Every structure is written in C-alpha cells, then in structure tokens.
Amino acid sequence: MAITVGVVGVPAWWWGAVRVTRPRMRWALAGPTDRGPALGRSLRRTLGVVVACGAAAGFAVGALTRSSTPFVDVGTETASGAVAAALVVAIACAAQMRRSARASTTARAVHPIARWHRDVVAPADGLAATSRLLLLTADTEFVDHARRVRWCAGRSAAPRRSVAAASPVATMLRADVVRLRRRPGDLGVWTAVVAVTIAVGLTTTMHSVAPAIAALLAYRAGSAVASGLRTLTTTPALRRALRATATQILLAHGAIPAVAVVGWACVGITTIGGVTPVGWCLIVIGAIAATARRATRPETPWDAPVYITGQGGVAQPLLLLALLRGHIATAVVAALACVV
User: Fold this and answer.
1) Is the predicted pLDDT of residue 87 greater than 90, yes or no?
2) Residue 300's CB: how many other CB atoms inside 10 A?
3) Do 137 and 220 contact (CB within 8 A), yes or no?
4) Membrane-crossing residues (predicted)?
5) Which DSSP letter does residue 51 get?
6) d(CA 180, CA 227)
7) Per residue in 103-125, is it b (16+ CB within 10 Å) or e — as a string?
C-alpha cells in the first residue's frame, strides 16, 4: 500500500483529482452552461486511471514478494493497491476543495464540483507542458523545475532572516537548511523512502537483489533533498552572485544530501538483510556520489552529434549520457554491491 501511495499519490497530488487544460476551460467550459458533467467525467477518468495503476502496482508487488514470502496473497495486494489509490484520489479531491474555498469569494463555491474555481480546476502551473516535454525528451528535470516554479509562485513573501556567517560555506549551508525548512515536501519524500525501506525489509527476503534495491533507495533518499545544489547548478547568475567556487558549493549544498543518505542507511541496515558491511559502505558512498553527480548535471546538450546507426536509426550518445547522469552511477553501485 505504501508503494502504491508513492507511485500514484504524488502525481495525483500534483495534478489534482479534477483537472482540465487551460484552453478548454477558457473556450469550452467558461460559458453559462453547467460544466459539472465535464468535470465529473474528468474526475471519473482520473479515478479509473489511478485505481488501475494502484491495482497494477499491488499485483506487481504481490507477484515479486510471493517467491520470498509464501503467505503473501496476490489478490489481497492488488485489492489493497486499488483501495489505497482510491483513498489518494479522495485526499487530492479534498485538497482541491480547500484550495477552491480559499480562491472563491462565496461559501457555496466549495461544495458543487461545477462551481470550483477555475484556477484550481485548470491551474496555469506548467505541469501540462512539462509532461509533454517529459514524454518527448525523457528528461525528468523539467518536472522538478515546474514544481519549484509553482512553489515559488505560491510563496512570494517570506520573513527576512539573515543567513550570513563567517565563511561562504557556512552561509550556503545555513541557506540550504532554511530552504529545506521552507519546503517540507522534500522531507516528506525522504520520509516516504524510509517508510518504503522499512516495508521492503519487513515483508520480503530477496537476498539476491537486496543490494540493488538498497542502492536505488539510498540514491532516492539523497536526491529527495538535493534541490539546493541542483538550483545553484542550473542558475549561473545565482552561483556568480555567491562568489563561491565549485568546491565550496559542493561542500555546502552536498552536506544535507549526505546526511540524508547516512540517516537512511541507519534505518536500512536494521531492516534490509542480505547486504554485507562492505556492500553497505559501497552503497552509502556511491549514493552520495551519484546524488551529487545528478544534482550537478550541466546544461543538457541537445545539439550533441547525431550518429546514423543504419536502417534509418539515429543515436545521440552524448545526449543519452547527459540524461542518465547519476542514474548510471547508481546502476554501477548496485551491480558492485551485489557482487561484494
């Protein structure tokens, strides 16, 4: 159930249970007629997709853990995944209702779905265009950038707090701590990774692939709180304004991801079996290195050389390596951890 919530819960929370495109809301649903049926179809479509994905995730988890845990019932796992997905949709729908209540001027706009505020049903947060770019380019950084922009748009004012310190490294470290405190969602993702780690350790005994699973979870735990380093890497103006070297930036903004990986490892060592002490050391060090490598990824070389592979096929190896920066390091660490 925890895996299902992680797989379908985050997209449902981002998108919302009821969502249409901005052009459709303006040109097709903004007239005097009731838009309740159209929004109801959107809700039913979202519910169907999310429940199907939750059931598929539950079936996959049940099928994978049945070999290591014979008492696991695949049907029960599938049903629990579907129920968890339905609960996620209900929570997302309630959150949309609260946002609509804050954005509307009348109290009655809270209850009927047809009267929800258009900025809640069709928000201009860039997620639709980002999803299309993700499908075309397979680059997940677009989604993260859209999340940061939406977060900044909703929090344009904040109390001024001095983070100045004696050294640039200490100043940037304090700024990263403030950023993490203002964005509790990153800590929520890290907590979800820890919860999945505990669930995997308590419900499965897959010793052969345990090091690979641990390496993936460690990398995700570190990358969940590495947005500070990623922001500085992708914002040259901010990096120059700090007047800090690349080493100072890496030391300051890589401290929190390193602590996150070590904290995750303290939980993983007590729950996940089948990993040797040398493997744990390799996983922790490799996850920290892979997280830093992913967060410091330079600008994507979309103009990389194109090679003709024959039979009409083309390839861009440099572009592929840039898109998989950090993921390749994680795969190498997982393979080495399984060997040792």
Assistant:
1) no
2) 15
3) no
4) 47-66, 78-95, 187-206, 271-292
5) H
6) 9
7) ebeeeebeeebbbbbbebbbbeb
